[in-house]
Design a protein that fits this description.
Length: 298
Amino acid sequence: MLNDFGKIAIAEIIFYIPVLLISLGVTFKHGFSRKVGWVLLVVFATIRILGAVLLIITQTQSNPSSGIITTAGIVQSIGLTPLIAATLGFVSYLAIHAFPSFTRPLHLIHILVTIGLILSVTGGIDASPDHSPSDQKDGRNHSKIGSILFLAAYSALAGLQVLLHGVRERFNDNQIKFLNVLSLALPFLFVRVLYTVLAAFTAKSSGPSKFSSIAGDWKIYLFMGLLMEYIVVLIYIIGGLKLAPGAEQGGPGTYELGTTRTESEETQAEGGRWKIPGRLPGGRLASRLETVRDLVHH
């Protein structure tokens, strides 16, 4: 017999199967590069479906093994990782376009997310009921550190978005729209990250925390956990459907990156097509385009 969490798991499967299919469509539209972030939405939806299936299995079996229970908990806990990683991928492209030398801080954020993922997995394994009390304590500590790293990564991404809004003149119209999409999702992502932090710091050996995603207060989990991340995913997907392909990178149909909108508008030709500006921003792609332009002119 399914409890409230089991019933929520059924709803997760129903909700995330369409999300998975639409995410695949958005990813085909914008590209499968993991660095961009779209494909990570596919990974996130897959993890959510898998976690829901595992949770249902643990509740429908008369005597589920500790391995299945532990795996279900781990899959639930790591689901946040691809969502943060996707956000990092989106923000990174805008940040590198605005500040080409801004790679080291982005690598640092990536390291925070990666270590947070590792600690979440090890924390979930060590906190398993079949481990010793000492291992369980270590597992809870690992989960705490992992959640703090997720919060630190989120804080860095939020601060970076504020910085990017301060240099909006460096972006074309589509990129500004993309930045607005990311900023719209920011408060909902914060609540989701906060839920992970609270779940880690209220975990105890005597029993599950009310913030547990498999045995806590289902109403808290539904609001702070599932609803928040679902809103974030929907914002990203809707934004991805509306944005032109490659908009986050200054792709086709957008203004050339590095020019002002006034300069770009002056290059518009008849028929609505965009010609190559007389002066392009630096970079490999710009160099190649300039070479092609010179060949055409001569």
